[in-house]
Write a structure and sequence with these properties.
Blueprint: E1 2-5, E2 16-19, E3 29-38, H1 41-47, E4 64-72, E5 84-88, E6 97-101, E7 105-107, H2 121-134, E8 142-146, H3 151-162, E9 166-171, H4 174-183, E10 187-190, H5 196-203, E11 209-214, H6 221-227, E12 228-236, H7 249-255, E13 258-261, H8 269-282, H9 284-288, E14 296-301, H10 305-314, E15 320-324
Parallel strand pairs: 8-9, 8-11, 9-10, 11-12, 12-13, 14-15
Antiparallel strand pairs: 1-2, 3-4, 3-6, 3-15, 4-5, 5-7
Helix pairs in contact: 2-3, 2-8, 5-6
């Protein structure tokens, strides 16, 4: 088969479409013929040499895919050859075929085509696990998501609105904020022109946000804590703004607040399977009824993955960028 390889770390040009050995499913695994994958920030970090795949996983980038089951390993039940699926991966999505633990497979939701389904596994799993399973966002609470126009952000807005939360977003352009508003966001903050701490306090009569989903890390740590309400929960899922920040413990104690930080890729298979099962139970029905939808900015041929990486680096996109075969 062919896959996107990374012979040497570097810029987008480091991505090489090359012939590689065919994968073979083992115990509890299925083989998926990949129709589409999606580009995530973690893929850019892997290309740059900063985020190696977990031990034992595929060396190729790609944290999610959609396609058809073509082979089934020992000990797998509930799936058959020919099933159209999408999958959460530890790597290997940028390829013609990929082996997937059966617990990380999802059926393609009703009303979604096979290519578009590749936009769903990583964002739904990330948002559901962090915002609902860990941070327990509840109806009537105020939820702030940074990067509201990203793949994560567009999904977070829709899921938070679906459970009855009030949603605030940050983004860097009017176009992106307008789109977030169309998805249901109530509070639109241009981080280039406004201080999100002040805007959140103004919008909540000084109370603050009950849950914050943050992709920036160190750069926003102190300001996020300032923005939290009493008993607030800050969920950190990215490091775009650095890895080391100063945390004011006194402020955290005074608010009886919590800070959590998670990554999805390196979790044990059992934890991923639990998250995927929760997504299938809670999110898939919302997609089937049209209350939640995947947002796709554009599709790019998989062999030209470098072009897709440049799109993410330029950060003018809204939603997901997909790689198609």
């Amino acid at each position: 088969m062919h896959a996107i390889t990374i012979p040497e770390a570097g810029g987008p040009e480091a991505l090489v479409w090359a012939e590689v050995p065919d994968p073979v499913p083992g115990e509890g695994e299925v083989l998926v013929d990949v129709v589409a994958s999606a580009v995530n920030r973690a893929d850019l970090l892997q290309r740059q040499g900063f985020y190696n795949p977990p031990p034992g996983s595929s060396p190729y980038p790609g944290l999610e895919c959609a396609g058809r089951v073509t082979d089934i390993g020992p000990g797998v039940s509930g799936w058959k050859i020919g099933d159209e699926v999408c999958a959460l991966l530890a790597g290997g999505g940028y390829a013609e075929q990929v082996v997937v633990p059966a617990g990380q497979l999802l059926p393609v939701p009703d009303g979604v085509d096979l290519v578009t389904a590749a936009a769903l596994p990583e964002v739904t799993s990330t948002v559901w696990s962090n915002v609902f399973m860990i941070s327990h966002l509840r109806p009537g609470e105020t939820f702030l998501v940074h990067g509201g126009s990203s793949g994560i952000g567009t999904m977070a807005i829709q899921l938070a609105k679906a459970v009855g939360a009030r949603v605030a977003v940050t983004a860097g352009t009017k176009e992106k904020l307008d789109f977030c508003g169309e998805l249901g966001a109530d509070i639109l903050i241009n981080y280039r022109e406004q201080d999100f701490v002040e805007e959140i306090k103004k919008a909540t009569d000084g109370a603050g946000a009950d849950v914050i989903l943050d992709n920036m890390g160190a750069k926003y740590l102190d300001r996020n804590v300032q923005s939290l309400a009493a008993n607030g929960r800050l969920a950190i899922i990215g490091m775009q703004g650095g890895v080391k920040g100063e945390l004011n413990i006194a402020t955290l104690l005074g608010k009886r607040a919590a800070v959590t930080a998670t990554s999805l890729r390196g979790r044990p298979a059992e934890e991923k399977a639990s998250i995927v099962a929760a997504v299938r139970e809670h999110v898939w029905p919302l997609i089937a009824t049209g209350h939640v939808r995947p947002i796709v900015d554009q599709t790019v041929p998989m062999s030209d993955a470098a072009a897709a990486h440049r799109v993410l680096e330029e950060s003018n996109h809204i939603g997901k960028v997909l790689l198609v075969r």
